[in-house]
């Protein structure tokens, strides 16, 4: 299987700078909505995030990055690598500086790096909230990157002139590929290997991976090529914690964005730590998937760390199935994101699940299946009267919704029997099925 990460064909604008100069605030100002998490502390943004924006009739992709800190180490060094990767793929670079703080040694070092990149650069002198502060922007001529543009990302002052300068440096629009066939989210509790799974799928270090939980804060969008020329959009999300402290703004907004992702994707890869098995928190996340009505594939990650004893591995898989028994319709894929073993089976599995998610059966087929099921096993009598399904129809897809018109109330167990019959006859592996029962109104005397 050929895996790639195609872009959207739009020119790319990378927003870079040292930490806490207002890069994410500037991106939010361009988008006109709060997409990037903003907090008055350095190091909030870690991965690079791309958003489609428009100004003056020109569309472009604006990429928010983490702070550039020369000489950073540890997790900060990984943040710098992501920012440098954004610079390498950008058509225009926006260097955000803090006009209120003045020019710093780190600004000079970053400017030197950008000059060597040999790409168009626009200097955004941020935090010029008052016209009397504009002369402070002239200090940044020392960077040797052209005219600094004074602006206020917080209030929007001067942002129009700055965007005009960016648009003037954009190249011609490249041919855009077809839209993504479907979108999927990689979800799970913290530190189970979601970002590692994304990187393994793409074959590149798209997301920052660190042993500490909570490394990913914003959803990260990427693209992967599937079979038959299809393109899947993949969203890596922050870990869904059991309890979120409202006083921790970063954790709360990361959790909120992860929950919102479920409402805008077709399916999910639910990543579980195979060493620890399915926990109560995994069960709660799985229940969220079912309630959202999304296609699902369970990823048993870190399988390379599971003991090699055959009986123990069999018990672990059986225990995982029992703990997620209401997801018996999902496929389970054993992978190691670290060694990339088994990762090639993920895209075909989730593609098949999404096809089931979108499948729609003809009404005649649905009635044939339900009718045969009733002949084999009639519904128990209720109050001395028989209960039958008179008519059945699949009302919608994504997720598949079946409506049963009956002569009385159906037992939950019987609805489950009908669902199992439909799955046995028509497939639908990888997607939840929704059911509605409508009783025939009694005729008035």
What structural keywords apply?
445 residues; alpha/beta; six-stranded mixed beta sheet; 11 helices; 20% strand; elongated; disordered N terminus
Provide a concise account of the structure shown:
By secondary structure, the protein is α/β, with parallel strands linked by helices. It is 31% helix and 20% strand.
Walk me through this protein's architecture.
It is built from 11 helices and 15 strands. It is 31% helix and 20% strand. A 6-stranded mixed β-sheet has the order 2-3-1-4-5-6, with helices on both faces. A 6-stranded mixed β-sheet has the order 8-9-7-10-11-12, with helices on both faces. It is elongated. 41% of the residues are buried. Mean pLDDT is 81; it is low at 1-7, 37-47, 72-79, 207-218 and 244-254. Strand 2 and strand 3 (58-64) form a beta hairpin. It is α/β, with parallel strands linked by helices and 445 residues long.
Flag low-confidence runs. 1-7, 37-47, 72-79, 207-218, 244-254
Tell me, what's the shape? elongated
Structural class: alpha/beta
On the 0 to 100 scale, the average pLDDT is 81
Number of strands: 15
- The biggest beta sheet, please? 6 strands, mixed
Write the layout of secondary structure elements.
Blueprint lengths: L11 E5 L6 H9 L17 E7 L2 E7 L10 H15 L2 E7 L6 H13 L3 E6 L22 E2 L8 H10 L13 E6 L6 H9 L17 E6 L5 E6 L12 H13 L5 E7 L6 H13 L2 E7 L8 H14 L7 E4 L11 H12 L5 H14 L12 E8 L4 E6 L5 H15 L7 E6 L6
Parallel strand pairs: 1-3, 1-4, 4-5, 5-6, 7-9, 7-10, 10-11, 11-12, 14-15
Antiparallel strand pairs: 2-3, 8-9, 13-14
Helix pairs in contact: 10-11
